[in-house]
Amino acid sequence: MKCLVIAALAVAVGACAPITPRQDLVGAPVPADAASRTVSISPATRYVNVIGGDVVRFESAGQAFAWNFNASPIVSVFALNQVAPSGMLDHEVLVYLMPDPLYNEGSELYARSRLANPWHLVH
C-alpha cells in the first residue's frame, strides 16, 4: 500500500513539473528590424504576454534579440531563457503565449478564410 501511495505521489508531482517544449515549437529567431514591438527585460520582469504570430524584440543588459512567435498551438507557456542568447537573462522570464487569433476557430478571420477556401471541406 505504501508503495502505491508513493508511486501515485511521484506521478502527481511529475505532472506538475513544467515541460520544456522543443525550440521549433515556440517560433524562430528573426532580424531585430523585423520586430513590431520591443520589450525591455529588467530584473523585476517575471513574464511577458505575447500573441501567436507576434514578432518581438527583447532588450536586456545591453543585449537584444528578436523572436517570431509562430508557435505551435499546443504551447501556452515556456521560458524565454530557452531561446534568448546565452547569458542575456540572469533570471527566469516566462512567456505566456496566446494562440494566433487568425487560426482560432471562433474568430471572424478564421471563418472568412474557411469560406474562401473550399478545400477545407475535403478531409
How is this structure best described in words?
This protein is 20% helix and 26% strand. By secondary structure, the chain is α/β, with parallel strands linked by helices. It has one domain (21-115): Immunoglobulin-like (Sandwich). A hairpin with a 2-residue loop joins strand 4 (55-60) and strand 5 (63-68). The longest helix is centred in the first third of the chain and has 15 residues, at 2-16. The termini are far apart.
Mind sketching the topology for me?
Layout: H1 2-16, E1 28-30, E2 37-40, E3 47-51, E4 55-60, E5 63-68, E6 77-79, E7 94-98, H2 108-116
Parallel strand pairs: 2-4, 3-7
Antiparallel strand pairs: 1-5, 4-5, 6-7
Please outline the major beta sheet: 4 strands, mixed
Radius of gyration: 19 Å
Query: What is the total tally of β strands?
Result: 7
Count of discrete alpha- or pi-helical segments spanning 4 or more residues: 2
Strand percentage lies at 25-35%
